[in-house]
Design brief:
Number of strands: 7
CATH class: Alpha Beta
Number of domains: 1
Radius of gyration: 16 Å
CATH topology: Aminopeptidase
Distance between the termini: 34 Å
Shape: globular
Oligomer: single chain
Order of helices and strands: EHHHEEEHEHEE
CATH superfamily: Gcn5-related N-acetyltransferase (GNAT)
CATH architecture: 3-Layer(aba) Sandwich
C-alpha cells in the first residue's frame, strides 16, 4: 500500500488486522476499563473469530506495507473503527470514518450510527468532534460481572445525489 491508501480488506490481511485490533483495543481500554473486563477480553479472544469471519466487510488504510487502521461499515452502522496506536492523531481515524460513511451513504442511508463504549472516552470525544451526537445509553451486565455502558451516537450524512 502506498502512503495512506484506502482499500478493501483481503483474506491475507486477516492476521495483521487481528494484531491491529488487539493493539488498538488495549490502547483504548487499558487505562480506563476495569481489569476484569480486560481479563475477560484476553480469555475469550473474540477478536480472532470476528476478523476471520467479517474481514470481507472491512476497509483498510495503509502506510507503506503496514495497515494503520480499519473500518467496518455495516448497513447504516460504523460497526468498528480502529487505528494503530502509533498512527493515532494523524488523520487516519477521520479518513476511515469518512470512508465508512461513504459506504453507508452509497447504500442509501441518510443517518450513520455507532456504539461506543463509555470506557473509551477518547473515542467518544473523537466522534463528537466529527458531528456525532449521543442519542442513548444502553446498559448491560458483562459475563465478567461488570456493568457495560454503550453510547449510541448518530450523525446525519448527506444523501447521494441521483440525477
Amino acid at each position: 500500500m502506498a502512503a495512506r491508501d484506502l482499500r478493501p480488506a483481503r483474506e491475507d490481511d486477516v492476521d495483521a488486522m487481528i494484531e491491529l485490533a488487539r493493539r488498538s483495543w488495549l490502547s483504548a481500554f487499558g487505562q480506563t476499563a476495569p481489569s476484569a473486563l480486560i481479563d475477560a477480553w484476553v480469555r475469550t479472544d473474540r477478536t480472532t473469530e470476528h476478523y476471520r469471519r467479517y474481514w470481507k466487510d472491512m476497509l483498510l488504510l495503509g502506510d507503506g506495507t503496514t495497515i494503520v487502521g480499519l473500518v467496518q461499515p455495516l448497513e447504516a452502522e460504523i460497526n468498528g473503527l480502529w487505528v494503530h496506536p502509533d498512527h493515532q492523531g494523524q488523520g487516519a481515524g477521520t479518513r476511515l470514518l469518512q470512508a465508512g460513511e461513504d459506504v453507508i451513504r452509497r447504500a442509501g442511508h441518510e443517518m450513520a450510527w455507532l456504539h461506543c463504549s463509555a470506557y473509551n472516552p477518547r473515542a467518544l470525544e473523537f466522534y463528537l468532534r466529527r458531528g456525532y451526537v449521543e442519542t442513548s445509553r444502553e446498559r448491560s451486565r458483562h459475563p465478567a460481572g461488570i456493568e457495560i455502558v454503550n453510547v449510541r451516537m448518530e450523525r446525519r450524512i448527506a444523501p447521494v445525489n441521483t440525477p
